[in-house]
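Notebook entry, structure prediction.
Reason for the run: the old model in the group folder had no record of what sequence produced it. Starting over properly, with the input documented here first.
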Amino acid sequence: MDEIRGEEIQGDEIRGRVRGTAPVPLSVLDLVTVGQGRTASQALRTGVEIAQLAERRGFHRYWVAEHHSMPGVASSSPAVILAHTAARTERIRLGSGGVMLPNHAPLVIAEQFGTLEAMAPGRVDLGLGRAPGTDGATAAALRRTDRLNEGADDFPQQLMELTRFLDDDFPDGHPYARIHAVPGPVQATAEGGVQSPGRPPIWLLGSSGFSARLAGVLGLPFAFAHHFSAQNTVPALELYRDSFKPSTVLDAPYALIGVAALAADDEREARRQVLTGALSMLRLRSGRPGLVPTPEEAEAYAFSPMEREFVDNWLVNIVHGTADEVRSGLDDLAKRTGADELMITANAHGGEARLRSYGLIADAYGMPEV
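New structure, fully documented this time:
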């Protein structure tokens, strides 16, 4: 397989900076959740508020994740959300966690993220996943084909094609050699061109070993979905590090993990808030996706023994409680996994609880206003 080049990308654009007493850099993953009684417009406004709070308090990056056909998740179009957020922030890195590459033509992604890079130079990340981010029928509607396995199997080839569009370096004789992703490096080579040849760094995302190994072999940064695949976290990170080969992008491995965490003013309130996300996930896994329920509905829900077991197992992997309890849990997770960065996702019914959580976590680590 060809090497991922990215000569203009430096490791410093990838590695985060520790703020306050945090064990590693902290970042935010936002699913732009929509609760019962709330609108998508309200959820998107909350997303901007979270990004602005994260910027003020020194979180390193703010990512959104591609999902489809889920009433409770309004992040079907990461590039659109990121453009909106870029116009309302100044410093924080913005990115996808991630764009599901098999759902899109590589040229389209290169154009979208080239546009984002032009809007917010030097602070855009392109995180890529190979899952559909939805069910099979919706994936077929997105891709206009029912050959879904083909997309995942072709992921390395699609990745190389996307990279060549971003770098504008298809070899002579290639069918796409005269096709250019714009905005992009071609504008720097055009007569009178002054366009920066830089591009967003590519991250590979995963919840198993496939992307971990591929990211290592290609010398790319890796993001693991610990928040819904906790049992695979340590093996995947070990595989990534063991497979890593230095590249022009990174000279050493760099891995972040997505962490479900929510802090509240007291333990009971934290439990009430995370139970809403657990019930929402239960309904999703049962084929009944909907809006995120209220804390009152989640508390009153009559769980069957099987449902209670699912919810209890789900909550085990959510770091929740008071700010001090969440800080202790995050410290332990960073130590246990050796992750280079923690990307926190706070899933709850209302935006107020999520905003409060990120503020409390920043306070617990003494992250100053910047």
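Summary: The longest helix spans residues 267-285.
The old model has been moved to the deprecated folder.
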